[in-house]
């Protein structure tokens, strides 16, 4: 099913699930840093993929997750299609002869156990729930692949982009709701929730009573519409639940009170360099809503 596919892609919805992350200043759980700069790094997670391609030498990248090749779901599909990939099985990973594997807590336990048995160094990352934790993850990946200066440069790029996209201090926030696959929305305490707040958007999921990422009934949206409703781009084949909601005739009743905007699903799941595009998309949606009200 489409929802199952995207939940897996997100490793539990990295930006949205509110999972407990590893402490921001601690090394990744289960890290086994190889001696010297690793020559072949394999990533098993799409959100680690996007960091790896930014901070590693191309020759260092032994393989990425197969999700990275999907243009609908990934911000690095063009690059990923030129690199080896795996479906995360132990056999595929071992065939790439890595001397460092980047994994996440939702990565295959069987594969991680096989790496341990063969003494192949790995770094097990948590899910960042804040911008600060996401930036620390960038730094840690860069350190592990032997390019800490590139990590710091990428962090500065992200911070600059977030600052440029943020509204002026004191600007009144607009309420917004981001529909994810299956009609879920990000609750408080998630990376997406923080990104919305930084871009001048008040997460309507909070006033709907969500304490975590949960399903939001359409009736609730119609009864108490946010200023902005964001949902993904049309997906090839059968439309997702969120797409069907955006076309629901009942929304016509609140069309004058709610601005609809596209928020590509490739921006839903990951932090790191993806935050640059996330900030820009949220800022554009806010500015469009303000123009509609003018």
Q: H/E order of the elements? A: HEHEHEHEHEHHEEHEHEHEHEH
Overall tally of domains: 2
Q: How are strands sequenced across the largest beta sheet?
A: 3-2-1-4-5
CATH architecture label of the largest domain: 3-Layer(aba) Sandwich
Q: Compute the gyration radius: what is it?
A: 19 Å
User: Care to count the β-strands?
Assistant: 11
The major sheet is characterized as: 5 strands, parallel
Helix content: 25-40%
Q: Could you state the oligomeric state of the chains shown? A: single chain
Share of β-strand residues: 5-15%
How many individual helices? 12
Enumerate the spans where pLDDT stays under 50 for 5 or more consecutive residues.
Answer: 1-14, 17-27
- The CATH topology of the largest domain is Rossmann fold
CA-based shape: elongated
The CATH superfamily title of the largest domain: Nitrogenase molybdenum iron protein domain
Estimate the mean pLDDT confidence: 85
Distance between the termini: 42 Å
């Amino acid at each position: 099913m489409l929802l199952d596919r995207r939940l897996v892609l997100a490793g539990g919805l990295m930006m949205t699930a509110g999972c407990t992350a590893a402490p921001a200043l601690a090394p990744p759980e289960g890290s086994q840093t190889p001696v010297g700069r690793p020559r072949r790094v394999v990533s098993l997670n799409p959100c680690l993929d996007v960091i790896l391609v930014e901070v590693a030498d191309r020759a260092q990248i032994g393989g990425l997750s197969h999700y990275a090749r999907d243009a609908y779901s990934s911000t690095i599909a063009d690059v990923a299609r030129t690199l080896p990939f795996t479906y995360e099985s132990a056999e595929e990973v071992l065939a790439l002869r890595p001397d460092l594997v980047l994994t996440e807590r939702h990565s295959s336990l069987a594969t991680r156990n096989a790496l341990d048995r063969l003494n192949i160094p790995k770094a097990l990352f948590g899910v960042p729930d804040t911008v600060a934790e996401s930036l620390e993850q960038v730094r840690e990946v860069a350190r592990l692949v032997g390019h800490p200066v590139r990590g710091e440069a990428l962090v500065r790029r992200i911070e600059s982009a977030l600052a440029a996209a943020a509204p002026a201090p004191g600007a009144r926030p607009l309420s917004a709701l981001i529909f994810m696959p299956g009609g879920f929305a990000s609750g408080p305490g998630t990376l997406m929730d923080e990104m919305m707040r930084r871009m001048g958007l008040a997460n309507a999921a909070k006033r709907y009573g969500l304490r975590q990422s949960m399903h939001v009934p359409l009736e609730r949206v119609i009864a108490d519409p946010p200023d902005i409703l964001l949902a993904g781009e049309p997906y090839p084949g059968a439309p997702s639940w969120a797409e069907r909601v955006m076309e629901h005739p009942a929304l016509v009743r609140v069309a004058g009170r709610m601005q609809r905007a596209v928020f590509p699903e490739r921006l839903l799941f990951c932090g790191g360099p993806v935050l640059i595009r996330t900030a820009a998309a949220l800022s554009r949606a806010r500015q469009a809503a303000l123009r509609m009200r003018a």
